[in-house]
Amino acid sequence: MSTAVRAASTSPPTSKVPEPSRSRFRLTFPGALMAPGISILALLSIIPFLTLIVMSFSRVRLLGGLQLDWVGLDNWTRVLQDMDMWASWWRTAIYLVATLGLEMLLGVGIALLLHRVVRGRGLLLSLVLLPMFVAPVIVGLLGRYLTDSTFGLYSWALGKLGYEGDILGGSASALTAVILMDVWEWTPLIAMITLAGLTGVSPSVLEAASLDGAGYWQTLRHVVFPSITGILLVAFLIRAMDAVRYYDIITVTTNGGPADATKTVPIRLFETAFRFFDLGYAAAIGLMMLVVTILISKGFVAVLQRKV
Amino acid sequence: MPKLGAGEDVWRRFAGTRINFISENTAPTAAIAANLAPFEKLTGIKVNIVNLELSALVQRVALDMASGDAQYQVIYADPYQVLAPYSKGLADLREFIGKDGYPELEGGLDDFIETQLKAAGQFAAEEPVYALPYDCPTMIWQYRADLFEKYREPMEQDLGFDPTPGAERTWDEYYEIARWFNENVNEVAYGTGQQAKQHDSLMCDFSNLLWSYGGDYFENGQELGLLGVEEPGACQLGSDEAVAAATLYDKLVKVAHPASATWDWDGVGAALRAGEIAMCPNWHEFAASNETSLPGKVDYAPLPRGPARSSDHYGGCGIGIADNAKGAVRGAAWLFVNWATSPEVQLSNLKSKAGGGTPTRTSVYDRAEVKEAEQRPTELPNMLTGPAVRTAWQPDNIGLRPKIPMWNACDTAIFTGLSKMIAGQDDAESTMADIAERIDGIVERGWVA
């Protein structure tokens, strides 16, 4: 923190050489102003983060107070060799690609439709945004009831179409169901962000394209999408980071089943930490998730920087 | 610890204290929560009850024990998820039982059903008592008596045996009965429902067959289920008996209601009450709600037998005291544990409209009004299961899962493997072998509390 601590070499020249121990750690005025904030950040974030790193190299004992027994790289070796863990990563990747793909497709489509609406857009937008304001756990419960094979509306409708299985009871259908629940809840967010981007596209550019004889699809492809790429990438980034951590709906509906079909990494992490109390191993999984999330976000930011 | 004054009532020794009781959201706790006034009047102790789903309870108890400062003084000690892994964090109740300065434990420890006291109250050694049996859900055969009565003759003619449910029926016959209902009866959608969700319930459901076929999770399974051990040895699920049990279970789920793969015990209970299924294995404490929804139509029997025996899964829990609780709250916690497991309170729970549960003391079952309640009409509907559960709790019939500290991880390996088998990803033999290998790995890593 260069603003927090003034190094001896940047101090104004004086006739006497100051005592290093006193001048090196003297807080500047801006540093003093930032110190409370940094202390709180350290307390809430940095210290737990460092603790998590230490835990990932330890076996954690709870009884009689927290104790960490150093085990070296054991937890990290285990997490890298655990085939169940890699299967969970694979499911998380499927989930990430499917939810993001569908949400972007539907969200952009809905935004384009709403953008063309002149009268009643506010009302329509409010209706479209409603799912986003429902707590994910409630979405999960709603989904569970709607897909229940004894009284669920969706099960009944699918039954009429000839589907005989139980939606949350089959491996493929359960994964599809939780993906669609996420899509239902978060497509409105993409629609809202995209709509904000669309309203920012300069009318004069659209008018010029129109005068040049560009049709609707040509205008979309060559004018509108290039103008909103940045904002779409931000929406993509937000949802991608969320999707890696997706937990609520799965835990309420399938809790990872059937046959582990919906056991994504966050579900496995929770299970390891708070069901098995294997906290050292859970710390390694958590840090692995953090690294993946950072890599995803860095990837998006790199693309974004190239576009801007 | 406050001294007992001369002539002072032992129940009033800790008056003015406030304690917290953390419990799974079970029927007995609902009944006790609705009727705390008598305890508070008797002792002057205030009790705050925290009701949670079991996995949330285990998390809070573990973290509370790690803190070293017992925020929860009275703990609902599930034998497999709390008692076995955290027995060192629970007080040995012999510190209070029969000691001066504390009220007598009415009837003594001998009044508790013996198998339940060991399974729910002790761990790894005969002497220490970490919890007193508090509830005793046990899996029994729950069936639509009206439909069995109506179709008994044609069923008997078609199947070639008397289909009346009971411990003399076999699991193969149970399977045949389920199929017969699927094909011949319109009043219900399916013959049987199973609690085959990828959840603890799947392990519970399968275990009944495993034990009845003579298989077990570890060597000396029954002994291991009663007292428990820290290191159980090699997993026995690769045995022929276990494979035979898994084969039949897979077959059974295939003819069960398709939603079975999404049902835990609540789901299967709701399906029976909704008229979706004709029968199911489920915890006996569902009897009260069955009687409300289908008055007079549901009856109960011990589960069918396999080649070895009839086995009924016991899932009872005890209540104990956090060892970190010190001073007056420790004594107050004991007064609550003593009161909450007393015969009078167990009888009152049985009558409660708020919850229920069934007693864990023999003296309560011996009372005339409780015995009478085993027949309809009854004011104590859970007692309709009395004859079935008394048979189930016999040492030869009780089914006990292994009481080992690393059970949660083993349990997950079991129900995940079974869920894959049911989904058709694996056959019974490779499922059992895979689960056994995983359990051996978990046991080898050991448990660090």
How would you briefly describe this protein structure?
The complex is a heterodimer of chains A (308) and B (449). Chain A has 13 helices and two strands; from the N terminus they run ααββααααααααααα.
Report on the architecture of this protein.
- The complex is a heterodimer of chains A (308) and B (449).
- With 308 residues, chain A is mainly α.
- Chain A has two domains: 49 residues, no CATH class; 231 residues, MetI-like fold (Orthogonal Bundle).
- Chain A has 13 helices and two strands; from the N terminus they run H-H-E-E-H-H-H-H-H-H-H-H-H-H-H.
- Chain A has a two-stranded antiparallel sheet.
- In chain A, a hairpin with a 5-residue loop joins strand 1 and strand 2.
- In chain A, helix 6 crosses helix 8 and helix 10 packs antiparallel against helix 13.
- The longest helix of chain A has 34 residues.
- Chain A starts with 19 loop residues before the first helix and ends with a helix.
- Chain B is of the alpha/beta class and 449 residues long.
- Chain B folds into two domains: 179 residues, 3-Layer(aba) Sandwich (D-Maltodextrin-Binding Protein, domain 2), CATH 3.40.190; 224 residues, Periplasmic binding protein-like II (D-Maltodextrin-Binding Protein, domain 2, 3-Layer(aba) Sandwich), CATH 3.40.190.
- Chain B contains 19 helices and eleven strands.
- Chain B has a five-stranded mixed beta sheet with strand order 2-1-3-10-4, with helices on both faces. A four-stranded mixed beta sheet of chain B has the order 6-7-5-8.
- Chain B is globular.
- The two termini of chain B are 28 Å apart.
Provide the descriptors you would attach to this structure in a database record.
heterodimer; A: 308 residues; mainly alpha; MetI-like fold; 2 domains; two-stranded antiparallel ribbon; 13 helices; disordered N terminus; B: 449 residues; alpha/beta; D-Maltodextrin-Binding Protein, domain 2; five-stranded mixed beta sheet; four-stranded mixed beta sheet; 11 strands; 44% helix
